[in-house]
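protien #1 (seq + structre)
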Amino acid sequence: MNIALIAHDQKKQDMIHFALAYEPILKEHTLYATGTTGKLIMQNTSLEINRLMSGPLGGDQQIGAMIAENRMDVVLFFRDPLTAQPHEPDIIALLRLCDVYGVPLATNMATAEVLVKSIEQGDIDWRKVVNPNKTEEGRT
């Protein structure tokens, strides 16, 4: 599965802890992350991350494009609900695309844990049915 990892500045440490805790599960999948989040995860784990641009510089939109192209299966986006984000329209667009295309989305650690445990158990394998023509690289 293709999994996106995104974290606002105040949630990056939570994402690092999450990636460390679930590294054995995450390493079995293709991971994408926005710039700084991906860099920090790679510095603190042995996970391979396909790094995109920083969220405010277009990374959120890159992940959104992958969703629209049927190339993303799960989005783990640790949002900071207490801090205004200058690129809020991009964030809302990303969340909307997850809803439009039926991509499972976690916006906090508790929901991310449920999703990752579901991935481990094969409960999200329905994505393979939804995306039957997906190749190993995630392209249809």
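ok now protien #2
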Amino acid sequence: MNIMYPDYTNSILNVSHSILDFYHAGARYPVIPELKEKLSDDIKHVCLVLLDGMGMNIIEKHLEKDTFIRKNIAKKITSIFPPTTVAATNAVLTTNLPYQSGYLGWVQYFKKEDVNLTVFLNEDFYDDSKHFQNDFKEMYLKQDLIYDYIKKSRPEVKTYELFPSFRPNGYKTFHLQMKRLLEITRKKEENFSYVYWTQPDMLEHEVGIDDLLVKKKLQDLNQELEDFSKMLNDDTILIVIADHGLVNVEAIDLHKNDQLMNYLLRKPSMEPRATNFFVKPFKKQQFEKLFNDMYSQYYKLMSKNEFLSSGLIGQGKKHPLLDTFLGDYIAIATSNKFFKFKDGVTFKGHHAGLCQGEMEVPLIIYKNK
């Protein structure tokens, strides 16, 4: 499979910083020239729509060249690392990479509570019957978001976020989200809106990226965006991105590898394709040898120092808990394999590794001529 690294001059993070630049809100990363050009002074309404899992690979596989989405791709950009929803959507919203934001993946280890937390669900990944009174995100990961930066620079600009129904006052369908977004663009105020939708990611996890159901889902999303675009006024810009793509995958039952698991201090965390290992003292050499003997054709194993020095998750001001979130080794998928951490639901599509299909996403820009 083709390997692709994130490009932090041409990524979803740079989309956020291009928007910050438009609002004179202190862009700290390079802006994307194609987006900067479209964000002109006559724009009053900025709409940023993030469709989870809509990588370039499925767009090119399932949509014809004359469809709205494909016609309006300004360029191909990358996700961040790891290309996964917790890390990537929070890179867009916090305008920081994981090194600073602390958002690394679906499962993160919190030392004080000694728990492998499913971050978005606020529950123990290995025992989902456990729920916690305190919200770990609020306690340890709360920080300024893109809305806050905009408001500080331009208090007169109103900001909105539209999420699915898993959030209070969320929306049951993408159609309802777009209907509400259109209402926002009709307001006389200047505003910025962020829309997040869970598809096609959820479907791709279930059926893989080639299934005709994915084609139908993309066609439906494309139609919604096209219908929305036809009703926009000249003072509105529509920007559509994805947090990551997906690739078809095959499972490795890591949890059944007793020898390797016996080398670990605690169970694996982070992501099935970007896996975090805390290794017992004096067992690192044995762990490293066994892992590479068994899995080096599928995963690139990096020590914690190598991983941090690589710049994959960014640099700058380190999140205070980053060193406790990360274990001794991180294994990054370079193949079509994924690690199963426990028995249960499997996947046909997944993400978080370094393959082009999960890293390459579109930057779609639409503005009435």
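Residues 12-96+143-248+354-367 form a domain with the Alkaline Phosphatase, subunit A fold (CATH 3.40.720.10).
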